[in-house]
From TrEMBL:
Signal peptide per UniProt: 1-17
Keyword Glycoprotein attached: no
Sequence similarity: Belongs to the ATPase B chain family.
Transmembrane segments: 27-46
Coiled coil: 65-132
Superkingdom field: Bacteria
Quaternary structure, from the entry: F-type ATPases have 2 components, F(1) - the catalytic core - and F(0) - the membrane proton channel. F(1) has five subunits: alpha(3), beta(3), gamma(1), delta(1), epsilon(1). F(0) has three main subunits: a(1), b(2) and c(10-14). The alpha and beta chains form an alternating ring which encloses part of the gamma chain. F(1) is attached to F(0) by a central stalk formed by the gamma and epsilon chains, while a peripheral stalk is formed by the delta and b chains.
Protein name: ATP synthase subunit b
Record's keyword terms, sorted: ATP synthesis, Cell inner membrane, Cell membrane, CF(0), Coiled coil, Hydrogen ion transport, Ion transport, Membrane, Signal, Transmembrane, Transmembrane helix, Transport
Topology class, membrane: Single-pass membrane protein
């Protein structure tokens, strides 16, 4: 770099030195020299700090791109895992729902069976109670009928039996006994 700058400076000064000492020509030389110095300084600054800056920036960008790719891959993997878990959860839910429906159906059948058995027992008990009440009623009715028959018989006997008839009945009964 220094060599190129020196060569340029020597070439420009030699070209103007041979051409005379015009005032306008010298100004052009100094402008050229200033421009070359400015370009050299800029080249030196860019080379010294700019190259490192742009290299660091490029490395940072490459690193960010690689991290983004890795994050994308991780996200895609996590998405696939989540989708698999979702499918598994759906299958488990469907299975659980089937099992619950079957269990409910069985429970309903058992409850209906038990209710029918209880109803049959209640009917049997009711029939037994009715039979007992019918027998009790028949016995009461027989007692009542016997009582009324006795009352009516006594009434009839009192009306029809007089002392002579009584003697006659007693005689007949004694003969039948002997």
């Amino acid at each position: 770099m220094r060599k190129a700058l020196l060569l340029s400076l020597i070439a420009v000064s030699s070209a103007f030195a041979g051409g005379g000492a015009e005032h306008g020509g010298m100004m052009l030389v100094w402008k050229t020299i200033n421009t070359i110095i400015l370009l050299g300084a800029l080249f030196y600054i860019v080379k010294r700090w700019g190259v490192q800056f742009f290299e660091n920036r490029r490395n940072a960008i490459v690193s960010m791109v690689e991290e983004a790719k890795k994050a994308k891959e991780d996200s895609e993997k996590a998405l696939k895992d989540a989708e698999a878990k979702l499918e598994e959860a759906k299958m488990k839910f469907t299975e659980s729902l089937k099992i619950a429906e079957e269990t409910a159906k069985k429970e309903r059948e058992v409850a209906i069976k038990e209710a029918n058995e209880i109803a049959e027992r209640i009917k049997a008990q009711a029939k037994d109670a009715i039979q007992v009440e019918i027998k009790r009623g028949e016995n009461e009715l027989r007692k009542y009928a016997v009582k009324k028959a006795l009352e009516i018989s006594e009434k009839i006997i009192k009306e029809k039996v007089n002392p002579e008839v009584e003697k006659e009945i007693i005689k007949k009964t004694l003969k039948a006994l002997s």
